[in-house]
Amino acid sequence: xxxxxxxxxxxxxxxxxxxxxxxxxxxxxxxxxxxxxxxxxxxxxxxxxxxxxxxxxxxxxxxxxxxxxxxxxxxxxxxxxxxxxxxxxxxxxxxxxxxxxxxxxxxxxxxxxxxxxxxxxxxxxxxxxxxxxxxxxxxxxxxxxxxxxxxxxxxxxxxxxxxxxxxxxxxxxxxxxxxxxxxxxxxxxxxxxxxxxxxxxxxxxxxxxxxxxxxxxxxxxxxxxxxxxxxxxxxxxxxxxxxxxxxxxxxxxxxxxxxxxxxxxxxxxxxxxxxxxxxxxxxxxxxxxxxxxxxxxxxxxxxxxxxxxxxxxxxxxxxxxxxxxxxxxxxxxxxxxxxxxxxxxxxxxxxxxxxxxxxxxxxxxxxxxxxxxxxxxxxxxxxxxxxxxxxxxxxxxxxxxxxxxxxxxxxxxxxxxxxxxxxxxxx
Length: 427
Fold this sequence. Notes:
By secondary structure, the protein is α/β, with parallel strands linked by helices. Helices cover 34% and strands 24% of the residues.
C-alpha cells in the first residue's frame, strides 16, 4: 500500500460531471489499495469570477477580506468532491487549509507555507477515509487569519502535504497528458516528456511553463517529493519530475545522457521598462534597482547599453511581470531628479522565449541554433539572458508564438502528431 497525494486543477473540477469523473479516479486509486489525500482547486474560473466580483464592489479590495472571499472557491470544490466520493460508497472527509494544518506567513494573497501539521489528516487516513483538502489556502498563527498562496497555490499545497505525510508520490493532474517540450496550445507538435529533471523543470516553470508552478517544484526539490504530472482526462503515463537521486517507482533506469534541450517555454506576462539617459557613473544601477526592489516589483532580465561618449549617459532596460510595472514606474518617477535620468519608457507588448536543457553545459552551438532560427523567421531579438542551462530572449509579443514554433523545430523537438489538450485552459 502506498500513500498517494493527488492534486486536481480548476478545469479538472469545472462542473458536476467533471467532479464525478475525478471522484471515480480517486476511488479507483483507493480500490487499488492505496491511501489517498487530494488537494483541489476552485471549480473552473471561479477564482477569476470572484476577483471580478470583488473589483465591482471595491476598487481596491481589502487584502484580508479578499482572501476570505477567494478561499471559498476551494471549499466548494472539496465539499462537492467529498459528496461525490460518498455516493460511490467510500468515506471521504474534506478539510480547509487551516483544518489541514497548513501554516503560512501573514502575507495576504501571496503567503508562503512555513509548516504543515496534518494531525487531523493522519487521523482520517488511519480510520480509512479518503482525505480532501482545499488547495491554495492556509492559516497564520499570529494573526489567526485565513491566507491564500497566490498563483499555483494548489500545486504547492499538494507538494507540501506530500512532504509532511511522507507520501510515496505527488500526482499533479491537469488538462494535458504531462509535461511537454513546449506549450501544446502554442506549439501543436510539442512532444510529451516521460521524464524531466527538477532543475530543468524549475527553469521551465520560472520562464512561463504553466503545467507546474515554480514554488511547487522548488518545494518538491527541497523536500525530496516525487512529482508525477498527469492528465485528468486520460490514463496515460504522464511525466515524472525527478530530483537528485530520485528514480521512477518502476525502477527503470533513466537515460544517462542529458538532453541538450528539454523544452521551450513562452511567457506573455512580461513588460519592459527602459530608463533613458542614466548617468554612467558607479552606483547608479544600484540606486535604480534598490528603488525597484522597495516597490515590491520582481525584476527578471536586465540589459545596459554602452555609454555614449559624448554625453556620458546610458540606457538601462529590464523586464518584470506586467502587474508589477505600474508600481515600479511610480517609484522610479518619484526619484527621477535624484537619480538624474531623462525619461522612462514602458512597453507591455513583449514576450519572453526560453530554451532550457541540462545538456547545454557540455554542448556548443545551442545559442547559434536559437539565433539562426529566429533570424530566418525574421524575428528580432530585443534582450538576451542566459544561465548554465537556459537561454532567454525577449521578442515582440505578436512574434512569440511563431518564435516558439520555429525554435522548437530547429532543435528537433517536434513530434509526429499534434498534442492533445483536453480542456483548453492549461490547468
